[in-house]
Amino acid sequence: MKRLLVLLTYMMGCLLPTIAQVSVEASIDSLELMIGEQAHISLQVSLDADKRLILPAYPDTLVRGVEVLDVAKPDTQYLNDNKRMLVKEVYTITSFDSALYYLPPMEVKVEDEVYKSNPLALKVFSMPVDTLHPDQFFGPKDVMKPPFVWADWYGVIACAILWIPALFLLLYLIKRIRDNQPIIRKVKVEPQLPPHQLAMQEIERIKNEKVWQHGLSKEYYTQLTDTLRSYIEKRFGFKALEMTTDEIIDKLERVDDADALRELKDLLKTADLVKFAKFIPMMNENDANLLNAVKFINDTKEEEDPNAKPSPTEITIIEKRPLRTKVLLGIGIAAISIYLIGALVYIGMELYNNLA
After folding, report:
1. Is residue 11 part of a domain?
2. Do 340 and 163 touch, CB atoms closer than 8 A?
């Protein structure tokens, strides 16, 4: 008996390493399913890392009535200093027939040798039906129309409102680019007053300010002579603002009224003394010089023609439309056309979807 026990122990010790080389185990995450639900079968194989492994392949069904929906990519994990490896593969299954299914062992090949896993079971059941109360069954419901909501129609209303003015704008742009009409602009023009009227307005302002009464004689005569020089330049056509007093007098020698010219000469000479020699004239002399300036303007002013037509207050300017404008008109026509077509398509689709 002792020899027999020793012999059996020796044989078991020799067989155990061989048996432990490959281990195949299958498990399922749910033993019961309702029709159409899914379950996952995990197949786990443990073997030496240098062995070649072939996992089972199921194209569409595991057994009759149980369909294979998906096969995950195998997950490999190395153990014992990369001497062993643990391979795991997950199968997603479902069934559409209520029954109790026997799932046979799953076969794997290791170095052309077949190993099998443990078998599994799966119960598939359907919804319970109360056959004792058939009056509680209801037929299919009709298609229900959604309630009317204004917010669903905001886009259609906005497109419809903007569509009509966009159409008129498109027609207007097409007409403009076809007719090639020039651009017409109206410019308002302020009527130009005669030189003597402008000068009299400025002298009236100088008179009302009375700057000489505040000891500002130089400023007073500067304003007065500048007004006269501007009047002479516009009235007689030479640049009096850039001339000296003697040059201006020489130019005005042709004036018939010698008294007016003499008074103007006295006024300009007095202004030169005030501005450059710090001369301070008497108050009555300031008033007299102002009157002399008025008299000179009145004596030399150009008489208005009573038959002359009034100057226009508005001028019409006609310009040819440049190429850039034509290009912009073309771009505008294209953009509005795209909007009109898109708006029509959008409105039609919304009406079809909401009223169908």
Report:
1. no
2. yes
Residue 48 within any structural domain of the chain: yes
Pairing of strands 183-188, 314-319: antiparallel
Order of strands across the sheet with 99-103? 32-34, 120-125, 99-103
Q: Cα separation of 355 and 84, whole Å? A: 67
Show the domain range for 344.
150-185+320-355
Q: What is the pLDDT of residues 254-267, one digit of tens each?
A: 655 555 677 777 77
Distance of CA 193 to the CA centre of its chain: 52
28 in a domain, yes or no?
yes
Query: In angstroms, rounded to a whole number, what is the distance separating the alpha carbons of residues 235 and 196?
Result: 8
> What is the pLDDT at residue 121?
92
**Same domain (yes/no): 95, 164:** no
Contact 264, 252 (CB under 8 A): yes
CATH of the domain at 68: 2.60.40.10
Does residue 138 lie within any of the structural domains? no
Residues 40 and 91 in one domain: yes
Count of beta carbons in the 10 Å neighbourhood of residue 122: 22
- Residue 239 in 3-state DSSP? coil
Chain centroid offset of residue 212 CA: 65
Residues 29 and 108 in one domain: yes
pLDDT tens digits for range 145-188: 777 777 777 888 888 888 888 888 888 888 777 766 555 566 66
Residues 6+ apart with CB under 8 A from 302: 194, 195, 196, 235
Greater model confidence, 8 or 109: 109
35/57 Cα distance (integer angstroms): 24
Give the Cα separation of 63 and 122 in Å (integer). Answer: 11
CB 108 within 8 A of CB 53: yes
Distance CA 241, CA 289 (A): 19
pLDDT (0 to 100) of residue 318 = 61
Radius of gyration of the chain (CA): 56
Domain total in the chain: 3
